[in-house]
Amino acid sequence: MKMTPNLTLCGILALLLQCLSTGVAANVGDRPPNVVLIVADDLGYGDLSSYGAEDLQTPNIDRLVSEGMRFDRFYANCPVCSPTRAAILTGRYPELVGVPGVIRTHDRNSWGYLSPDAKTLPTMLKRTGYNTALIGKWHLGLRPENHPTERGFDFFHGFLGDMMDDYYTHRRHGNNYMRRNKKQIDPEGHATDLFTEWARAYLKRQANSDTPFFLELCYNAPHTPIQPPEAWVEKVEQRQPDISDQRAKLVALIEHMDSGVGKVVDTLKATGAYANTLILFTSDNGGLLRVGADNGHLRGSKQEVYEGGIRVPMCAVWEGHIEPGSSSNKLALTMDLFPTICDAAQVPVQHKIDGHSLLPTLLDKGNKQPTEDRFLFWTRREGGNRYMGKTIWAVRHGPWKLLQNSPMESFELYNLKKDPQEQHDLSNSAGKRFNRLARALRAHIQEGGAVPWQKQESR
Fold first, then answer.
1. Across the chain, how many H-helices and E-strands are there?
2. Of 303, 247, 280, 309, which Cα lies nearest the Cα of 44?
3. Does residue 346 share a domain with residue 396?
4. 303 and 387: one domain?
5. Are residues 302 and 312 in contact, defined by beta-carbon separation less than 8 angstroms?
6. Residues 398 and 344 in one domain
7. pLDDT value of position 365
8. In the listed set 363, 397, 428, which residue is the last one of a domain according to the structure?
């Protein structure tokens, strides 16, 4: 190949790197896709039939898994809600955007404040003409400056607070946090049904527009209270007479949500949008074992940094681009969805983020996956006598994982390749591995410690 003075080999490599950093979607079509991101709340790694559950039926989510790519080593950025949602929204480790723990409705028990400097995914997508909407649970703060429509969403229809005390009254501590944009509303019906119907209504409105859209649909199911419609419980109990009452209710709540997911996908198909829509489905953290969740063979529960608290199901569907029935063993986190969606939408990311795009994996059948030598971190700050405002941590590099599951206990070290159930603590026998992970974690803690997570006037 003959080189011109302005096109050296180094120049070619630099150009290729620039193309990769600003998105590979230029090769997947002229019109950017619509994007629908569906986030379940507290859905365990083993609580889909496509992920091994034998006592529940989730045909609609399973259909998404079969029509696209399933991820087997996908992780939430945190074992609780708000930090993972902040990671999705910003592509950053949540503590680096001010959300190391759960943002609650009471300042004295709230452990985060979404940084005003954080660039959000809907804001990025609007640069190239996307219409953006959030339906369902927000859980990133009640302050006016952090309302969804102030953080990039053109439309919000859902619940501003942290969790509902009742799926039918939609209250939290007696307060009504249901909103349509900034207007307080008081709708009737089960929250899962409401969020499903509001999402469908949005998709039908967008069918008349030439503008691509980004819809983030955040169910609060199967989060506590475990309160499915009674007809769904009866269906489960008739099918499985020996199931426990506790498990029957959780299974019913999950199956009810699955039905809603099916209705949303059916609406995409009916409006003709499905053919050019990237659909992503995942959960914000692992299942809560004490209410009957199943995290498969993994150790631990929601709230913990053992695998059961942070590994979650994830699948991606994009007709004509992602191979149906494919799977990936790539190690990824929810913060990786930010650059993935930006790549697919042909939106260059030119500011610092921590996530890595999964689009090359999605478009290549999951086969040629570049190995990434990155350290991965998990943080959770919490109150109460169990945590006292302190933080639990985990760091992973390759198969090695160092964690402190309680701020009052010692760090533990596991080799997940040899010990996927985290049964054999190697902290006293693998000193070099321990020290390497510990150094990386200390540097990460220092970086996160420089970011305010609570507004001064709320102290």
1. 12, 18
2. 309
3. no
4. no
5. no
6. no
7. 75
8. 363
What would you measure as the largest C-alpha separation in the chain, in angstroms? Answer: 77
- pLDDT one-digit tens code per residue, 214-264: 999 999 999 999 999 999 999 999 999 999 999 999 999 999 999 999 999
Query: Peptide bond before 407: cis, by omega within 30 degrees of 0?
Result: no
Q: Which of 136, 24, 26, 132 is nearest to 81 (CA)?
A: 136
Is-contact 342 92, C-beta < 8 A?
no
Domain count, the chain: 2
Q: What is the CATH number of the domain that holds 194?
A: 3.40.720.10
**Structural domain boundaries enclosing 400:** 376-458
Give the per-residue pLDDT at 107: 87
User: Do residues 386 and 279 both lie within one domain?
Assistant: no
Q: Which of 225, 201, 229 is nearest to 215 (CA)?
A: 201
pLDDT of residue 265: 98
Angle between helices 230-239 and 245-270 (to 10 degrees): 110
DSSP letter, residue 216: E
Cα–Cα distance, 28 to 271 (Å, whole number): 22
3-state DSSP assignment of residue 343: helix
The verdict on 325 and 452 lying in the same domain is: no
| pLDDT tens digits along 140-184 | 999 999 999 999 999 999 999 999 999 999 999 999 999 999 999
Residue 9 lies in a domain: no
> Taking Cα atoms as reference points, which of 188, 190, 170 lies closest to residue 178?
170
| 306, 330, 363 - which closes a domain | 363
Please report whether residue 23 resides in a domain. Answer: no
Q: Where are the alpha helices (DSSP H) in 329-427?
A: 337-344, 359-363, 384-387
Q: Comparing C-alpha atoms, which of 135, 63, 132, 181 is closest to residue 341?
A: 132
- The residue behind tokens 């029935």 is 325
Task: Give the chain's residues under pLDDT 70.
Answer: 1-29, 366-371, 456-459
84 belongs to a structural domain? yes
Residue entry with tokens 């478009």: 363
Q: What pLDDT was estimated at residue 29?
A: 57
Are residues 383 and 348 both part of a single domain? no
- Judge if 116 and 140 occupy the same domain: yes
Residue 232 lies in a domain: yes
5 in Cβ contact with 255 (< 8 Å): no
328 in Cβ contact with 71 (< 8 Å): yes
Are residue 436 and residue 338 in the same domain, yes or no?
no
> Is the Cβ–Cβ distance between 379 and 55 less than 8 Å?
no
Are the C-beta atoms of 93 and 87 separated by less than 8 Å? Answer: yes
Q: Which amino acid is at 143?
A: R
CATH number at residue 392: 3.30.1120.10
Residues with Cβ < 8 Å from 84, sequence gap 6 or more?
76, 77, 78, 94, 284, 285, 334
